Amino acid sequence: KKLIETFQKQEQDSEQQKEILQHLQVALKEKEEEILSLRKQCEACKEKERKHEAEQKNLQAIKLALKEREKKIWVLEEAISELQQQKEEAAMQTKAVLQRPEYSETSLEARDQDRVSLQEHVQDLQEQELESKQDLEMSQIL
Question: Does residue 118 lie in a domain region?
């Protein structure tokens, strides 16, 4: 009788252990699935991180390129400003050079007019002198 009780107890224990084992197997399977899911999530996060790092590098490269372009634009703007200033100076110099001949022409014209005027005056004086001489000669004859 004791042997049967022991055997029944062992059988009961064995059944309990089977149930526990089944529960543990189910729990193990759930944990394995959870681990697999977490690994997939981890891999997805790593991929996102790699993409983020690549985007950051790309962004840095773009920022650097923009800085270079801004620097080139600044240099070109400075060059344009300098060329504009040189253009204005050249225009002023050209205007000054062009005004000189006008001034010289005006000055020469004024001198020519003065000379003509003086020649006319000299001619008038010569005519007056001639008339005076003729008058003097006439008066001496008379």
Answer: no
Q: pTM to 2 decimals? A: 0.46
pLDDT tens for each residue of 24-79: 999 999 999 999 999 999 999 999 999 999 999 999 999 999 999 999 999 999 99
**124 within domain boundaries:** no
Report in angstroms the alpha-carbon separations of 25 from 28, 31, 44: 5, 10, 28
Domain assignment present for 82: yes
Instruction: Look up the domain containing 11 and give its range.
Output: 1-113
The dihedral sign for the CA sequence 96, 102, 105, 107: negative
DSSP 67-128: HHHHHHHHHHHHHHHHHHHHHHHHHHHHHHHHHHHHHHHHHHHHHHHHHHHHHHHHHHHHHH
Please state the domain count of the chain.
Answer: 1
Residue 81 has pLDDT above 80, yes or no: yes
